[in-house]
């Protein structure tokens, strides 16, 4: 049903043209302004049943938003953090994350959709034109405002009472620090956890694939092997957090090919151990080129030279890979002679 199908006496009264509108240009109004076009009435403006339907639709959307919010709270409270579900075509994902995202998205969408439907169907859609007037104050008002300001500044004695002025500025400057202190409750402080790993003197280098300690004789020239510290198991609750710092790759080079003096001293018979964590954004390094002794991070192509202190020769990484000092115990197994001398992975603001 359109406004043309409604008897003329049932239609709302039309508003007059905008003030100052002229159909033909003249000397005083060089540009023609015919005013606003004729207003086209909506079905809700002329049919109360249609307006009621729109009202129920908006109410339904708002009610659905409330139910979704309740579902969000219930999902957060009841769904275990480690529960996963299969969602086609995404695959296996966290059940809690899926439920929270779905309910929160539904709640926000229904609020927005309800507000839009309300505005487009029930609120007034009549366009109103108004003439634009200058917004600046008259010279007399401006002069009075400036005079009042100067009088107030003089009466406050802010210029003469320097002690009050300075302490006030100090109070205003320090007060926001109270909000900064509250940010501490956003999470536990990292302390020095970013500077240390599970590696320590005497810990054996365990092959990540076989889960067995490595002997020096097990490492061939040109081979790349990934190792973890002795005692770290995949079933451990903190395995992912710890391996993200303690993952190490070992490569056996010819001792004559090692250019860096410290690297040679920290190696054993050409076997060098370096952090597997890229110093750009923390991706695991997995590509090794035997002829050049270069390792490549597959994320952003940062390239490190393992024969020269693992320095960066290409890509966005900011510094060389940390080296782990290694040796051999009396049983012939490779062992660490301490932790990394510097933090592994990307730089952080307080690294120094």
Could you characterize the architecture of this molecule?
It is a single chain. With 352 residues, the protein is an alpha+beta fold. The protein is 32% helix and 14% strand. It contains 8 helices and 13 strands. It has helices spanning 43-46, 48-78, 95-121, 139-156, 162-174, 177-182, 239-246, 261-265, and strands at residues 84-87, 91-94, 205-207, 224-229, 248-252, 271-275, 287-289, 294-296, 303-305, 311-314, 323-324, 326-328, 334-336. The strands form 4 sheets. A 5-stranded antiparallel sheet has the order 3-4-5-6-11. Strands 7-8-9-10 form a 4-stranded antiparallel sheet, with no helix packed on it. Strands 1-2 form a two-stranded antiparallel sheet. A hairpin with a 3-residue loop joins strand 1 (84-87) and strand 2 (91-94). Helix 2 packs antiparallel against helix 3. The longest helix has 31 residues, at 48-78. 18% of the residues are buried. Residues 15-20 have low confidence and may be disordered.
């Amino acid at each position: 049903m359109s406004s043309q199908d409604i008897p003329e006496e049932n239609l709302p009264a039309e508003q007059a043209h905008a003030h100052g509108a002229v159909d033909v240009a003249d000397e005083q109004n060089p540009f023609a302004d015919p005013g606003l076009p004729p207003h086209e009435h909506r079905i809700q403006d002329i049919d109360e049943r249609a307006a009621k339907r729109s009202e129920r639709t908006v109410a339904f959307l708002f009610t659905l938003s409330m139910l979704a919010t309740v579902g969000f709270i219930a999902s957060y409270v009841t769904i275990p953090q480690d529960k996963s579900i299969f969602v086609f075509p995404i695959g296996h994902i966290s059940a809690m994350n899926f439920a929270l995202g779905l309910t929160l998205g539904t709640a926000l969408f229904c609020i927005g959709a309800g507000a839009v439907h309300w505005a487009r169907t029930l609120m007034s859609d009549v366009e109103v034109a108004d003439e634009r007037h200058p917004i600046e104050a008259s010279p007399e008002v401006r002069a009075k405002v400036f005079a009042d300001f100067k009088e107030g500044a003089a009466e406050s004695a802010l210029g003469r009472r320097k002690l009050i002025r300075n302490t006030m500025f100090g109070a205003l400057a320090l007060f926001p620090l109270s909000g900064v202190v509250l940010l501490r409750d956003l999470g536990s402080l990292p302390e020095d956890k970013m500077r240390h790993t599970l590696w320590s003197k005497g810990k054996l280098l365990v092959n990540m694939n076989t889960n067995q300690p490595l002997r020096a004789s097990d490492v061939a020239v040109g081979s790349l092997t990934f190792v973890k510290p002795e005692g770290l198991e995949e079933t451990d609750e903190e395995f992912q957090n710890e391996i993200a710092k303690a993952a190490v790759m070992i490569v056996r080079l010819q001792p004559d090919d090692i250019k860096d003096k410290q690297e040679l001293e920290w190696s054993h018979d050409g076997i060098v151990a370096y952090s597997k964590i890229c110093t750009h954004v923390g991706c695991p390094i997995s590509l090794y080129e035997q002829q050049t002794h270069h390792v490549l991070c597959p994320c952003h192509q940062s390239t490190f030279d393992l024969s020269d202190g693992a320095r960066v020769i290409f890509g966005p990484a900011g510094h060389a890979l940390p080296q782990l000092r290694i040796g051999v115990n009396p049983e012939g197994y490779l062992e660490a002679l301490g932790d990394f001398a510097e933090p592994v992975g990307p730089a952080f603001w307080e690294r120094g």
